[in-house]
Each structure stands twice: as structure tokens, then as C-alpha cells.
Amino acid sequence: MTSTSLGISQPSTRVSWLRHRPLFTAFGVTTLSFRRHFDQSRRFVVFSMDGKPTVLVAEKLGEAGLKVLKEFANVDCSYNLSPEDLCTKISLCDALIVRSGTKVTREVFESSVGRLKVVGRAGVGIDNVDLAAATEHGCLVVNAPTANTVAAAEHGIALLTAMARNIAQADASVKAGKWLRSKYVGVSLVGKTLAVMGFGKVGSEVARRAKGLGMHVIAHDPYAPADRARAIGVELVSFNEAIASADFISLHMPLIAATSKMLNDETFAKMKKGVRIINVARGGVIDEDALVKAIDAGIVAQAALDVFTEEPPAKDSKLVQNENVIATPHLGASTMEAQEGVAIEIAEAVVGALKGELAATAVNAPMVPAEVLTELKPFVALAEKLGRLAVQLVAGGSGVKTVKVTYASTRAPDDLDTRLLRAMITKGLIEPISNVFVNVVNADFTVKQRGIRIAEERVMLDGSPESPLELIQIQIANVQSKFASAISDSGEIKVEGRVKDGIPHLTKVGSFEVDVSLEGSIILCSQVDQPGMIGKVGSILGEENVNVSFMTVGRIAPRKQAVMAIGVDEEPSKKSLKRVGEIPAIQEFVYLNL
Ligand SMILES: NC(=O)c1ccc[n+]([C@@H]2O[C@H](COP(=O)([O-])OP(=O)(O)OC[C@H]3O[C@@H](n4cnc5c(N)ncnc54)[C@H](O)[C@@H]3O)[C@@H](O)[C@H]2O)c1
Ligand SMILES: O=C(O)[C@H](O)COP(=O)(O)O
Fold first, then answer.
1. C-alpha dist (Å) from residue 291 to 280, 389, 439
2. What is the pTM of this model?
């Protein structure tokens, strides 16, 4: 089953993968590019590759970003695709880059038939990407979270000041030949209270600028640290306090279930009469019908909106047409500078992800800093191989339900992030027994879906914390084993491994200490310890030119029960394996493919 071990999707019956050149990576994202053709029976047939991945850029992206992409990939810039066309194209793409105008739905992931490995959101908000579907399909989602912050904050301030002084309405009236000086008397900002809802990147930049305009700034954000707010002279308050005391309310939270329609009939009723609302976050955080009612009732004096529940909003939208509302077409991130920055940020993130680097801006996977990843690399390989080994020891028919993983380390528990290791153990456990492709993105989802519980335990060891880990132990409870000696005294299948000179080693099977490098495949034999066993097995394998990389015997005591572990570079024939099993002293044996 080559393709599973390479971390790519299983070929479906409709697709034949004739050649592939995988870039195996720490977390299973591979960069592959195929040309697929229909054969006469209308089956997909992959018959050539150019070695480069294909990136579909579905919305306008800055030139600098395209340049970064083109150095590494084939780039297909196809803007304004219909949902159907996007679904058709996606099966030929390894990565997709979008802004807020493209809905990356479950159908998109399903249509990609496992090929789409990365979705890059050239901006912050990922509410247009079905994250659950991405995760289920093992597709990494990355965004560009920082490059448009200042642009969005500046747009928020532009809307705030333009609204206070009726700039948009006054401009339109002058252009219409009118001169209405008394109609467009505005309000001053100095001394007024601005409530910043969502004190993240954009919110805090808006707050900083509003302070410069002489406003009194308060903020509401359940997750923002108070000291960060204090540092720029902003007080963090409750939601109710913020909306009740503000003259201006500026929205800067993400659109998630908890923030959807956060401003609604009930919350508008709690606001100060004459409040002014600015929204450069997402349209969905306001109940737009409720806003129209609040404006008509005189609760909200004015609103300045860059974002809408539906974009573009309907031409006859009562909200947009209201004379107390000014609107821009989602321009928050649209400065030359921000678009150049976002394009580079997302292109680098997508290329990095296609190369298999763990992305610093991953939205649905653990973010592991490069230096931590370098340190963990051999343990990542060990984790997957131990998982593969353990599951192959389970006798057919006994379902794996509970897996206990123990990490022994000299480092403090909060100094070891095990999410990547857990994902690789899951990959090892699931892939040999299914046609599911597992990577760091969908590992937790996959085990949950299969009803497998992975319990993790840390054991703190004494010593210098030079290495992140001493050993990993995997135990599978409540199952039979096809190799009885792998069952420990406490009744579980148990395997344990360590990294030696950068190479993963199997160091324990059941209660037997062994030492075999996990580079090729392994034969485990159990026997009563006696002279000549290594020679007998070695000569059978040697006869068919199977190279033995390691041989080790773990025994309870001399001439007592023992387990012999033999590492082999090539797969022995069934005939040779049968001959090994027929050696009289051998009680049981198993061949484990890594
Ligand atoms: N109009 C545009 O073009 C444009 C440009 C950039 C960002 N945005 C949008 O602006 C918003 C903020 O972007 P950002 O980069 O500052 O994101 P961010 O993640 O840095 O900040 C969001 C903040 O919202 C807070 N938050 C979460 N739930 C909340 C809740 N229930 N109540 C109050 N606060 C809550 C978070 O703790 C976080 O501090 C996002 O919706 C983003 O999509 C729009
Ligand atoms: O979330 C964002 O980054 C902004 O809303 C910008 O969206 P855009 O890339 O579609 O301009």
C-alpha cells in the first residue's frame, strides 16, 4: 500500500496513479502534480506529471505574491469562477488561494478527490472557508493575518470621521448641484466615547488612532489581555457596559457562532440614543434588519458599513439605501500596500505548506515553530512507526478502541507540545487498516470518527532536558494480538521506542527489551532462548538475498522465553517467512511492514 505510507490519498477505483514523486513531509502534505486524462471508459487516468504542484488563484492577488508562487508551482489565475467551475477545476489543483469573495464549501473539498492540500486565504477572515470540511479532508487552511491590519484600521477611522462629518452625503449633494451647509452639520469626536468591540489586531490599531483623535476609548473582548489594553490607555469593559456607554461603536471581532448577529433588537435597545456604528469586521455580526429598525427608531443615528451579510448587498437593500448609512464595498484591506503584503504573506504560507513545512499561520492545524519542529523530527518518525507497528500486532477481528500513549521526558509537561506526535501516531494506527489518508490536520477528527480514544500521559524523568523526549510507549487495550509476546503483563499490546543517533528504534515489545532500528521492516519471533537461533533465521533470509540490518534478542533470563527482533531492508518472500516459522524452536512470528 505505497500511497498510504507516502501520505497521499488512496487512489479511488476511478483513478490510477501511474507515477508519483512524493515529498513526504512531517505532516503528510505532499506536493504532487499530475495531468489527468479521461480514458475511453471515462475514467480518470493520471499518466504524467511535471513535478510541480498547481495553485489555483481564484481572486486577484498582488504581483509580488504571484511571483513567489510561480517560482515553485504552476499558477492558474482564474477569477470569478462559478461555484460549479470551481468544483470542476479543483480536482486538478494542489492549493487554492482566495480572498473573501469565494465560498470554499464542502463541495469544493469533496470535488478535489483528495488532491487539494492547502487553502490559502489572502486576508484574515476565514468565514468563507468551511473549516470543518477542510479538516475532515485533511486540507490545511492558512491565512495572512497581519498584512492588512493597518489598512483595515485606517478604513475604520476613515469611516468614523467621514460618518461624523457626513462626508459621503455632502459630497453626493455637491455633485448633484446642491449647497446644503446646514443639513450636513456633523458631530465632533473629541471627548466622545468609542467602544471597540474585539480588541485584536485591527481593534487595537483603531483604538490607538482614536486616542490620537482625542476620543475616550473603551473596549470589549473576552479574550484580550487587560495589560495590552492598559498599555495604550484603553479600559476593557463588559459587553453591556461597552454598548450602553458608547457614542460610537466600532466592530472588530471575527464572525463565528458566538458573534453572529451580536448587534440585534435586544442589544440595540440597550444602546445610548444617537449612537453611531462602524463595521469593518463582517456583516454577519449585525442583524441588518434590526439595524434598519434601530435607525428608524432614532436609537442609531448613523452607521458606516464596509461589510454586509450578503456581498454585494441587494440593490434595493433598505440598509444601504438609508440616508443615515454610508457604505463601502468591503474595502478595508484594499490599499496597494496591504494587498502587496497580503499576497506575499499568503504565497509564502502556501508554498511553505506545499513543501511540508508546518505553517505559522495554520488555522486548522497546530502551529509548530521551525526550531521546535527540527528538534521533534526524529520523534515524529518514531511516533508514526510505533503506531504502525502496534496496530499490525492487533489480531484481526479485535477493534482498536483505546490507545494509551506515554511520553517520557526530562522536560516539563508544558515544554512539550505533543499534538504533532499524537497526529503521527494516529496516522500510523489508522493508515495500515484503512484507506483513509491521515495528516496533522485531520488526525483528531479521524480517531474521533472511528470511536478510538487516544489517552496521553507524560512521565517526567530526572536528567538534563537536552532532548525533548526519552521514549514513546504505545499500549492498545482490550485486544487480542497476533503475536502473543507483544502483550504486556498488564494485558495490553505494548511497544516502546526511542531515538538513537537521530534514528527511531524499537526498544520494547510486550515485556521484552529489544533494540532494532525502525528503518526497514521487522520480523518478530518468540522462542525459548538458545544458541544458534540468530544464525538459523539469518541464513534463511540470506539465501534469498534479504539484507538483515539489525538482530536483537530480548529475554527474561538466559535460556528462558525470548523475543528476537530482526530488521530487514527487503521484504522476504512468503516462502522464506514460512521457513522461519518452521524452525522448531520458534513458537510464533510476525512480519511487520513499516
Ligand atoms: N473589512 C475588511 O476588509 C477587513 C480587513 C481585515 C480584517 N477584517 C475583519 O476584522 C475582524 C478583526 O480582524 P483582526 O485581524 O483584528 O482579527 P484578530 O483575531 O486579531 O482580532 C479579533 C478579536 O476579536 C476578539 N473576539 C472574539 N470573540 C469575541 C466576542 N464574542 N466579543 C468581542 N471580541 C471577540 C478576539 O479575542 C480577538 O482579539 C475580522 O472579522 C476580520 O475578518 C476585515
Ligand atoms: O478578512 C479580511 O482579511 C478582509 O475582510 C479582507 O478581505 P478581502 O481579502 O476580500 O479584501
1. 15, 60, 44
2. 0.77
